[in-house]
Amino acid sequence: MRGRILLVDDSDMVIRLVAHTLKKAGYEVTPTNNGDEALAQLNGQDFDLLVTDLNMPVKDGITLIREMRHLDDYRFLPAMLFVNNPDENIAEYIHNQGATLLFSKNHLKDKLVITVDKLIS
């Protein structure tokens, strides 16, 4: 196993695609559908990376990352935030909110594993 990833997205299609891709690359993936479920998973488990969507019902990705940063064990956990169409303004805002990296969903198939490898290493 190369690392444990907490994956958060409200789209089952995205969850299936990302989980399949990362598992195939040797990662252990714990999928959840919203920020509240993700915070519950963080309680008592060890993860090497958080991968979350920005726009979700119940709790969005920014709120999830901000709340995660208040947990001692996860204060410095790398957090990759998915967006459909990233731009410079949103990238700066997201970084200021505690995300490690902004990642375009357009690159899920071609750059996901390389990006995750860099964040975990």
From TrEMBL:
Source organism superkingdom: Bacteria
Residue span(s) of domain Response regulatory: 4-120
UniProt-recorded name of the protein: Response regulator
GO biological process, one term: phosphorelay signal transduction system
Keyword field: Phosphoprotein
Keyword set includes Phosphoprotein: yes
Classification via InterPro entries: Bact_response_regulator, CheY-like_superfamily, Sig_transdc_resp-reg_receiver
Positions of post-translational 4-aspartylphosphate modification: 53
Protein's organism: Mucilaginibacter robiniae
Organism placement in taxonomy: Bacteria, Pseudomonadati, Bacteroidota, Sphingobacteriia, Sphingobacteriales
